[in-house]
User: What shape does this take?
Amino acid sequence: MTRRKLVAGNWKMNGSLAQLAELDAIAAAARTNPEVDVAICPPFTLVAPAAARGNLSIGAQDVHPNDKGAHTGDVSAAMLKEAGASLVIVGHSERRTDHAETSALVRAKAEAAIGAGLIAIVCIGETEEERLAGRAVQVVEEQLNGSIPPGATAERLVVAYEPVWAIGTGRTPTVQDVAEIHAAIRAKLRGLLGDAADQVRILYGGSVKASNAAELMAVPDVDGALVGGASLTAADFVPIVVAAAKG
Assistant: This one.
């Protein structure tokens, strides 16, 4: 079953107005590789100016589950949509760890994003301790159980598997490990969503770079990548887009 590859860049707490010039070369690569969907998720302050360039899908890195209210420092899905975002990352391990986000909160954020017409990229992944204890599959299945909104569709839901121990470390799981987890995610999604799960894209994230992108993209049920540091420049990010187009 064919699923379009998606390569999404997560700038995290990096970037500036001047750095948005990188988007032009990334957009050019997206145009020359039309079989791949490409997006960049900059900090909140850059969502509107990035979207205003009009040449690339832009997302955000978090969203509040409520439409509005007394939530100082938070941003709603409707606000992101108005700013020009088309997707949003929820449940990244840095949010789950640094901000003690639970899977129930992640699901509420995903529901809010989907309700506003955004694509929700729901992140899951095990720690090194959990992997060494042989609990990697169990952990991601539990996170999926708690984080995936009931009735979600492939048009508005993407899952990103990011082993916590691989994020920003330069380390990646073996191809066999990635294949095992992605197969387990697909099976669990079928249990949660039925036949719709076969069209949900599952991205791999965690130290994705030009040197390993092609190998990762060739793994069954890897439908693209969620890219951190390598998405900050076109020189590093474009080869990953090209690898996805070939994978």
The two ends are 14 Å apart (CA to CA). The longest helix spans residues 175-193. Residues 121 and 158 are 5 Å apart (CA to CA). The chain has one domain: 5-246.
